[in-house]
């Protein structure tokens, strides 16, 4: 099972054997239900014969009658107009092994069984026209997004608009708007769009604090092209690392999120965006109750830079780091297995210029303790290049303070 980006439609089928198994289980349940009904009817007749119909009293539910489930209706009314469906036309180059290839082969209808054979025949240079050059083709994709300002700025995922040649937004009211890509950040999978048509657009706010595990949340988006879909669940976990990059810090939610929900918002009960849905964990490509969202704090930081510069500049320390295990901590005299151990400092890099060297362990940045190497990378990345910081390091059995100037992270 893998974490999957969720911006393209997908279907899942069952085998006849599986279908028969399901039907058999249904028959067993139905038979059990019939038996239960018969028993209940017999007990009811016995009760009436003994006590008389006049003595029968309605069951009192007491406090259970007052129990109410949470309603998201008011929140949906406020936030739904700010959520849009994102439609993208992207130019991609078909490879020789691309089985989807160009749409159709001359003389054959699309989807014909021989179409793939003839396409491969031509690509291998054995056709009547000889070798064929790879030609760019148009790929259509769909995702979700949401307005963050009245003047038409929209947040979505980078993978939704990657290589976009044309972007259209469809509002909740059904209006289609053209938009342009202002900037993208592949490392966090975020993108900022701007509607070409001026106007006053409904928008939502990003939450300023982290949600608590167990809080009710609401996901709105365009799953499988079904725009304006609303699902509910809870925050399941925080700080998830799904292996998509060095800055993984995802919220895990159990609201139903599917392909096409990518770039859509997850709201708290105040109608604030706590995260941007970006991936699901699924064996089939469909919802199994595990989804991942980029936290609002990350979105805020990235969007500000994209709006101002069109790209994101991150701080850089210039070291190779590794975790501090219990064995390493014991060997260097650390009480707790925390921090980031420097395996190598790049020559002429920011760390080397600050006097850091192999074997040093970074414990804190500006007085804030570092749990592990991953947290160090994320924290340094939040600083602007050139910022002055203070690092607390462990060297030769004691703590030291080192002044440090953050470098600029290479583009690659």
TrEMBL record:
Top-level lineage group: Bacteria
SUPFAM superfamilies for the chain: PDZ domain-like, Trypsin-like serine proteases
PROSITE patterns: PDZ (PS50106)
E.C. code: 3.4.21.107
Gene3D superfamilies reported in the protein's UniProt record: 2.30.42.10, 2.40.10.120
Biological processes, Gene Ontology terms: proteolysis
InterPro entries named among the record's database cross-references: PDZ (IPR001478), PDZ_sf (IPR036034), Peptidase_S1_PA (IPR009003), Peptidase_S1C (IPR001940)
Protein name (Swiss-Prot/TrEMBL): Probable periplasmic serine endoprotease DegP-like
